[in-house]
Design goal:
Helices cover 31% and strands 28% of the residues. It is α+β, with helices and mostly antiparallel strands and 454 residues long. Strand 12 and strand 13 form a beta hairpin. 45% of the residues are buried.
Length: 454
Amino acid sequence: MEELRILAPTGVLGAGFDAEAFRRGVEARPHVIACDAGSTDSGPAALGSGNPKLSEQAVARDLRLLLTARAALGVPLIIGSCGTSGRDIGVDWTAGIARRVAAEEGLHFRLGLIYADQPPDHLRRLYDAGRVQPLQHAPTIDRELFERGHTVAMMGVEPIQDALRDGCDVVLAGRASDTALFAAVPGLRGADPGLTWHLAKTVECGAACAVPPSANGLLATLREDHFDVRTLAADSRLTPRSVAAHTLYENADPYRVVEPSGVLDTAGATYEAVDEQTVRVRGARFEAAGRHTNKLEGAQLVGHQTVVIGGVRDRVVIDALPKLLPMARQYFDAKIREVFAGAVDPADVDIDYRLYGAGAVLAGTEPDDLSPRELGVLITVTAPEQSTAHAIATFVAHASSHLPVPEYDGLVSTLAYPFSPPEIDRGPLYRFTLNHVVTDVTPTELFRTTTEDV
C-alpha cells in the first residue's frame, strides 16, 4: 500500500483551530480531510431539540477553511455527526452552510448527505423482532418509547465508503462513530484494519492527545506496518504516553474499542517517539464481528426548567441547610397545592438544591468531610410547562432566601442572589432514553444517502 496521509484539523467542527497549524497540515498534501462535528458529551439537549451546540458562525468559519483546502487538494472531505446530534436536521443545517460557503468562494463539488434518523414505526418493528438489545447499564424500554422522543443510529464506515464510491467529494454524515470518519478512506485503499482503526481512534479528537491538549489538528501517515501521528501546532508535542492514553478516552477498556463492524484490540500496540511532535505506532489488531450492530441514541423532552443561583457565607446557615432543605420541600409541596388550587400535582414538579462546595459534583458521595467557608447553591425547578416552573421558582427563591435557622432569632438572610430577578428560565429539559444496539443489520440498512452537485 502506498503511504496514506490523513488530516484531522480539529476535534469538532466549530470549535476553531489555528489557521497556521492547519496550513502545515494542508502543505503535507493529505489524501483526505476528516472532522467530527458532534457528540453526546454535552448531554441530550442537541439530540432532543435538534439544535446544534456550536453557533452557525463558528461552524461556517471552520467549514470555509476545510472546503477551500479540499478544493485546492482535490481530496475528499468527510464530516460526521453534523449539527452535534447527527439528526437529519443537523445534516441539512450543515449542508446549508456548505452551499452558502461554496457560492461565496466559487467552489464546486459533489455533495453526499447521509441521514441517520430512525422512524418510530421501524424501530418498533425491530423491537418486536428482538433486534433492539440493551448495552451495559441501559435503561428499561418498551415499544412505545420510540414515539416519545427522537432516535438516531450510529453508522460505521460503510455508508461513508458508499458515498465516496459514488464520487462524492464532500460527505456530510449524520450520527457516526468518530473513528469511522478517519477509517473510511484507508479501508477503501486496502490498508491493514488494525492499523487503520487504531489510527482513527488516535486522531478522532484532533490534538486532544497532544501536550497540551488543544482544538488544533493532527496529521497521520499510514504505511504498511505502522502509522505516524504528528501534531501541527508549533507550541505542542506528542509523547508515546499521551498517544497511548487516548485509547482510554470514552472507553472503559483501553485495549478493546468496539465499532459497528468489530473490535479494535490495542493490547499488542507499541508507541515510539520519532521526535517531539511525532509518535510511531504499531501492533494493533482488528477483530471483525460475526454480526454487524449499530448503536441507537435517543432523547426525549421531560419538562421545562427554571434555575436560581445563590450563595451563602455563614457557617451556621451552611451547617443547617442539610436539615432545612427537606423541610422546605414539604412546605413547597403544600404551597404548590395552594397556589395552583390542585391543578398542579407536586409529584410532577422537581425542586432540587445542589450545594457547590459541599459535594455537589459527587452528588453527596464526597469521600472526605468538607468544611466550606461558603457555598454556591443551584436551585432547579422542573415542571411540565415553563410558566409553571417559573411561577414555582418565584416562591422557592423567596422562601430559600429566608429559611428559618433555629440558631438565629428573627428573620435572617440565608441565601444571596447575584441576579435580579433571580429566576432564570432555562427552557426545555431532555433526557437520554436509549443505550442499545440494533443487531443483525446490514452495514447500510439504517441509513439513507442523497447526492447533489454544488
